[in-house]
Amino acid sequence: MPSVRFATVRLLTVVCAACGEPGTSAFDASVRDSAASSRDAQDADSDASPADDASPPDDAEVGQDLDPKSLEPHWQPTVGVPPSSRRGRWGAVLVHDPEARRLILHGGSHYPNGPAGDTWAFDIDTELWLELETTNPPAPRFCHCATYLPDTRELLIINGRDEEGAVPRGAFTLSLETGVWSPVESEAPDGLVGCNSVYDPLQERVFVFGGASTRGFLSSTWSYDPRARVFTELSLGVSPSPRRDAMMVYDATRGRTLLFGGQTGRNSHANDVWGFDGESWQPITVDLAPPARRWGSSGIDALGQWLIFGGTDERESMKDLWRFDPSTEQFEELSLRDGPMARAGAAHSFLEDRQALFVFGGFESATFAAHEDGWVLGFR
């Protein structure tokens, strides 16, 4: 059985979560047992974090029948990136494992101290970061793309880089039932650094777009069949321009993938919007778009709105927050008094049942030094 090492850090509960049973595998049980044994010790601590004083909104404040624009966004600080002997982290991937009610974080850069190859779980109920000691882990990396596979309950990671450059082309899955990493034998997408990937539940496929390789920035689109464990490059007539580090999410209201921005050249960036229905890409015309950027934090919330925070245009990092309404296909900028410092490359994931965007780490463009902090964007 994979062992679990826990760290005594806590995360703010932003919204009361909906009921759900955690996974029942031996791997899940080891995580829960370790969390339970450490929770009592944490509760005895007299040092409360700043987040402990926050008052989360109740369930009625995040009801599905509310007008999304009537909800006010607010930032709250949380514990930072998972604890490590090397401080800070950017370029990590973060996905939501809903069955076990946790976030899974993998890899990242501790710049200037090199890449990470560890895997961590944040248990939503026990409020603990837990380091997962998995079997057959791939080489340390950052700037990879990742997706949660609900049908097989796996984490899929694709390509990435280390301090020397791109890692060998390839993809791996982590079983969240057993903690075992397995290579995907099928040829992986050609976007080695900065690809984007999302799972489309209607197509029961992962779609992977773009990235950079030795041939430059790419505009290729690939699909991945989780059960057959096969990647296929799609032949498409129209595609977004070649780019890496775009923001890409799945829009359940219209059954499509949405893509925004990304880096298109050494010092050039995009701020266009595209939709992909599994067969073709279509440009989406907006009246007002966020400034061009790459590597922002984003997610589709429980009310179907696409949130985009921060990013970089290489000259500077950003801290603005935008909301895209899929029904009107228009953006609006949201004004906030406080919040995290400007950043790009943060690990991020949106939890629909909590109506909250979790953001960990990232970097500031001037130095690429890794941030250590964490934030939660909630609505009330």
Describe the structure.
The protein is mostly beta strands and 380 residues long. It has one domain: 6 Propeller (Neuraminidase). Helices cover 5% and strands 38% of the residues. It contains 1 helix and 29 strands. Strands 1-6-5-4-3 form a 5-stranded antiparallel sheet, covered by helices on one side. A hairpin with a 4-residue loop joins strand 21 and strand 22. The radius of gyration is 19 Å and the shape is globular. 48% of the residues are buried. The N terminus is likely disordered.
Name of the level-1 CATH class: Mainly Beta
Give the total of beta strands.
29
On the 0-100 scale, what is the average pLDDT?
84
CATH topology: Neuraminidase
Helix content estimate: under 10%
Task: Give the uncertain stretches in residue-range form.
Answer: 1-64
How many independent structural domains? Answer: 1
Describe how the helices and strands are arranged:
Elements: E1 4-7, H1 26-43, E2 73-78, E3 93-97, E4 102-106, E5 119-123, E6 128-132, E7 145-149, E8 154-158, E9 161-162, E10 165-166, E11 171-175, E12 181-183, E13 196-200, E14 205-209, E15 212-213, E16 216-217, E17 221-225, E18 230-233, E19 247-251, E20 256-265, E21 268-276, E22 281-284, E23 297-300, E24 306-312, E25 317-325, E26 330-334, E27 347-351, E28 356-360, E29 374-379
Antiparallel strand pairs: 1-6, 2-29, 3-4, 4-5, 5-6, 7-8, 8-11, 9-10, 11-12, 13-14, 14-17, 15-16, 17-18, 19-20, 20-21, 21-22, 23-24, 24-25, 25-26, 27-28, 28-29
